[in-house]
């Protein structure tokens, strides 16, 4: 039986470091997704990261291993980061939603399901806590779901990708009015998993790489 109230806020400890947040997130019951997922998949990286990359949610392999971006999409992202001149170790990787949402097919096969607005809102306190601790110069939104989690429902990755956008105040992520601004910029791009699904992977990858180079430029990388 679910004990969630669709709000992770009560599970987020005050004055915790990233290790403390990660430990607390393991017991999060802020939405019903925890019931079927193997475990919480929290962010990975250091508090000194100048770049935070926000994806949608963990996938099947991430859910099993407990780490973000360790499946095929993560390996493609590693390649793109390297080509863009960004060390993965210099970035903090996380997701807008920390539990894997899926449906089962053919018995045991788990098929990704897009998280809903309620689940994104429920999990937002974890993302806010991560960003407050890190205070990145640049946030990369990987895909439409991450973009909407950061910039609100009007965000469209097809129209706003690759363009530096002002980051809303962290406590107004996803709901901030136009013109609100915190330190740092957001650069949106496609999720690397969409590159793997594309009919023209070379073109899709080139677009991802181009957007990541914009983020690299904001960090002062050539």
UniProtKB/TrEMBL annotation:
- Name any one Pfam family assigned in the record: UDG
Uracil-DNA glycosylase-like domain: residues covered: 42-213
Q: Which organism is it from?
A: Actinomadura yumaensis
- Kindly give the NCBIfam families that the UniProt entry links to this protein: UDG_fam4 (TIGR00758), UDG_fam_dom (TIGR03914)
Q: Does the record's keyword annotation contain Iron?
A: yes
What family, per the record? Belongs to the uracil-DNA glycosylase (UDG) superfamily. Type 4 (UDGa) family.
Q: What name appears for this protein in its UniProt entry?
A: Type-4 uracil-DNA glycosylase
Q: Which UniProt keywords apply?
A: 4Fe-4S, DNA damage, DNA repair, Hydrolase, Iron, Iron-sulfur, Metal-binding
């Amino acid at each position: 039986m679910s004990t969630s109230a669709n709000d992770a806020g009560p599970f987020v400890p005050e004055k915790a470091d990233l290790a403390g947040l990660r430990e607390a997130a393991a017991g999060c019951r802020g939405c019903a997704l925890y019931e079927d997922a193997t475990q919480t998949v929290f962010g990975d990286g250091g508090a000194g990261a100048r770049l935070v990359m926000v994806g949608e949610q963990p996938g099947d392999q991430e859910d099993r291993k407990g780490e973000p971006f360790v499946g095929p999409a993560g390996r493609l992202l590693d390649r793109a980061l390297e080509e863009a001149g960004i060390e993965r170790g210099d970035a903090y990787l996380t997701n807008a939603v920390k539990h894997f949402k899926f449906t089962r097919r053919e018995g045991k096969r788990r098929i990704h399901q897009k998280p809903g607005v309620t689940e994104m809102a429920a999990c937002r306190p974890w993302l806010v806590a991560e960003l407050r601790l890190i205070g990145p110069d640049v946030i990369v939104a990987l895909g439409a779901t991450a973009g909407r989690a950061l910039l609100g429902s009007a965000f469209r990755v097809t129209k706003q990708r690759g363009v530096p956008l002002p980051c809303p105040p962290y406590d107004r992520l996803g709901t901030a009015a136009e013109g609100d601004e915190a330190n740092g910029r957001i650069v949106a791009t496609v999720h690397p998993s969409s590159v793997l699904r594309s009919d023209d992977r070379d073109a899709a990858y080139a677009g991802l790489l181009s957007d990541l180079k914009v983020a690299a430029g904001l960090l002062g990388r050539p």
